[in-house]
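Record 1 of the preview.
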Amino acid sequence: MRRCKSLILGLALAFAPMFPAFAAPAVEAILHPPVEQAAPAFVQAHPALWRVERADTTIYLFGTIHLLRQEILWFDGPVRRAFDAAQDVVLEVVDEGGAQMQNFLMARDVAPNSTPLSSQLPKEQGEKLLAAMADNGAPAILFDHVKPWVAAMTLPVLVVEKLGYSAASGVDRAIKAEAIAAGKTLIGLETMAEQLGFFDSLPHDLQLALLGQTVEELPALPQTIARMIAAWGSGEPDHLAMLMNESVDSNSDLRKLLLTDRNARWADWIATRLEQPGTVFIAVGAGHLAGDDSVQHMLRQRGIETSRVPQD
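->
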């Protein structure tokens, strides 16, 4: 598998909502100590938005970032108007799981008596894994005894949360909260169990390869996430897709599982929904809305054209 500096961060940004809940309370205390901080300077973002129209139906497509800093402002202008016009709001996942999902993870993917992950990796990578767990407050007794994909997805989230990025400030959470407050219909394209299953179904050797690359790339995460957020905030979907999807581009099976097949299913959902009147606001990970296998490309293959909504 070709080495990509954006490997796991792109995946973590796409699937982050389920992983902060997996952190133990002690880890949360380390990540979010009660210290006084200066008020952040707000930054205005202008992310990309697309529209599909047919007769009396309008569907908006908006790319989200699941981990974001609270000072980044984005929910205004065309995005806010599209959201306000919609009766239905569609997210990747609506059932975020909470304690039930944490129990599912603990029962399914934690194996206290298994061979430690650090000993399954090459010696140098194993040492880096143990160091990364110690640096980020991840108890070795827990994180060295999970399936490799769980550690590979959790560690980057812990790292970027220390930089001020969080799922609580993420785009999906904000959209969901606004939809509930406005009494809009919420629809999930997938369930949390399905998303977990994508990774759980990966062969063990591929999971280990992902974990090994993760520990190699952790030091570069601050710069990588900054580039991703900048591309998203400036409305450059192709650049963002290149950064986020590079991880799956390097492996055809991973790309098919996490991007191509899911985008095709979502395009089918949109094609069916176009037969019903009304306005729909769809918000999915931004990496799904650019590139050769994007949702828009899948729609075009089905004879459905999308148009970019101009910025104010």
